[in-house]
Design brief:
- By secondary structure, this protein is an all-alpha fold.
- It folds into two domains: about 150 residues, no CATH class; about 160 residues.
- It has 16 helices and no strands.
- It starts with a helix and ends with a helix.
Amino acid sequence: MTMQKQLVFWGGFFLISFLILWLFRGILLPFVVGMALAYLLDPAADLLEKWKFNRFWATSVVMSVMLAVVILAFFLLVPSIVQQAIGLAQGLPGYINQLQSVVSEKVPDLYEWLGEERAAQFENGLAEMLAGGINILGNFTAQVMQSGLTIINLMALLIVTPVVAFYLLLDWDGMTKQIDRLLPRDHREEIRGVMRDMDGAMAAVIRGQGSVILLLAAFYGISLTLAGLNFGLAIGVTAGLLSFIPYVGFLVGIVLSTGVAIVQHWPDGLQIGIIVGIFLIGQFIEGNILYPKLVGSSIGVHPVWLMFALFAVSTIFGFVGLLLAVPMVALLGVLVRFGIKKYTSGQLYLGEGGVSEPDAKAE
């Protein structure tokens, strides 16, 4: 098969796959989550197989432990988080008014320090930022609701997802072997190399970044609660869960928590500084410890492209798009790097002489 035919074939394959995803976007959520769970739990099932469990019992044990953890977390944490989130949403307008009152009290000092024009710009900018934050939260909530997260779909998620995850996990090794057998023989090793890179990228996204998100949610939630911040658990968990979008989780968390801390503790600067310090420490841990150790450079996508993909895919697929965007852009990054490698080693790039750049410099 010529290169042109290969491009047509693979281009058509991805286009059809995209159209299928778009057509069935309304029912994808339990299947996407189930597939992610199966991929996440496959190493644990493989480990149990090495300990002389057959695949069925290994899958049953892993799924049982996972369900027990989820149910325990649901009954212990979710009610408190939901209660705090509702309280925060209801009290947010009042907090904003109180925060503006605090700022207004300091306006004379601001006028003296910054000058009248700059102080007015600061006050207007603060009001616009707060209003914009409310609009973002409102639009995000509306988008989630419009994505089909109704009671019926939530029940489908809770019932269908474990079933999908169980059967995918049970047949995971068989499916991967079948896919390997169907690879074109002339290009089998090359495609295997690309698929290994894809597996590394997916492991970084689902296992690595998933671990980072959960650890940050736990760190922020526990730290803000121990610091005595009102709604600290809800704000911390939200900031951690949103950390898969570059800088968004940190910004949402620090803006909300700082605003609540100012209203709650003003003029106690120490308490406000502790809240700000928690997020600065969390950002340092994420950027210098968690992300390099658990995710590394396997995703290989610039944060700007990642944010663009998140907004673009979520616009097309709704809430499911938020779950699909990062894995899709990670896989696309692998394919783009492979395409660039093929292009720079081919005649179209090298020309008739066929001499690569390093060879040309050597001459």
